[in-house]
Amino acid sequence: MKFLKCALFTSATAVSLGLFAAAPALAGDWDLCPGYDQPASATPDAPRYEAFVSPYTYHWSADSEHKNVYAVSLSRLLPNDRYCGFSLFRNSFGQPSAYAFVGKSWPGFWQSQPQVYASVSAGIMYGYVGKYKNKVPLNVGGFSPVIIPAIGYRLSPKSTVEIQLLGTAAVMFGTTWRF
Question: Which residues contact 73 (CB under 8 A, 6 or more apart)?
Answer without folding.
Answer: 51, 52, 85, 86, 87, 88, 99
